[in-house]
Amino acid sequence: MKFTEFKLNDHVLEAISYMGFDEATPIQAMAIPEIIQNNDLIACAQTGTGKTAAFILPILDKLTDKTETSVSTLIIVPTRELALQIDQQIQGFSYFVNVSSCPVYGGGDGVDFETERNALLGNADIIVATPGKLISHLKMGYVKFDKIKFLILDEADKMLDMGFFEDIQKITSYIPKQRQTLMFSATMPPKIRTLASQILKNPKEISIELSKPAEGVLQASYLVYDEQKSDLIKHLITNKPEYDSILIFTSTKSNVFKIVRKLKGKDYSIEGISSDLEQQEREEVLSRFRSKRTRVLVATDVISRGIDIKDINLVINYDVPQDAEDYVHRVGRTARAKTTGIALTLINEDDMFKFKRIEELIERDIIKMPIPPEIGESPVWNPKPIHKYKKRPYKKKRK
Predict the structure, then answer these.
(1) What domains, with CATH codes, occur in the chain?
(2) Which pLDDT belongs to residue 334?
């Protein structure tokens, strides 16, 4: 379905064309008409399916005829990275539309605070905010959300996983009940249903490829001992010089810079990114990775949904994620927008049972490959709870 079929405002269509888009993705084709018809919506869609444009485009279409600048749209997201990503997309799609936006997130300085305050006082049309920082502004008493017409929750399941259920309830208490509410989530657990029943009115429901990696992702795994992981990754990086954009995920931020130190090499650049860095530092790191000045980026799951970088050749899971859903989001960083990519997972003995559960979730057996002989022997695939079998000692072959 082409975007011209939605009968969007000419200025919005001009921006879409300017950005090189022509055909809508399935989530866009299903969601945009419902939003245009003023229906509340609960949509289940994985990362990389184009869901951000699915709600930005019809909202911009509704705002093209506005006569004054005031906060009419509030988008709530779990992380500052996602807030910045969405704000950047709004700026792109509104290039020919008189609509302004402002991201509101924690970790900034005094200048950021004043910018946010001015925007919340009515000097921006769209606010993209993380719950915690937005509540900090609300508590100061100067924020008036009486003109909000559109409330959007993106990555709703992630926000609830992070403990923002009560924060979201508090925020919605400041917003007029007469509004259009849109909820986008990668999964649909019972707590999402509970939240939806409280803040949405007779919503339309859409579900797109729940919990399945994109078809363009070539998935594989290696059976390894922990001591072999760094050597294996160095081997993969060295033998794939054509891969100029490699993203490595680890489950804990404490491991990010340990992994960076272990993987540093003469022939490639590598950096780490986590919530321990200041916001400006994180933006600079992402900028270098996006422009391919940094070849390898090590990151945590916190930003697995917030990195919007095209042409990532290879995603490596340094460890198996705790949440099976996070696996889908990690590997979804490659093969975006109908491209192809490779996702490799390093599985030690402790993680075999966990990885088996992921395979059950995505309804697919992922090939398990032994490591190269020069690195050593691989553990035997035995996906049982760890207490049911003994660990085999790590043995590295002599070179």
Answers:
(1) 3-208 (3.40.50.300), 217-388 (3.40.50.300)
(2) 75
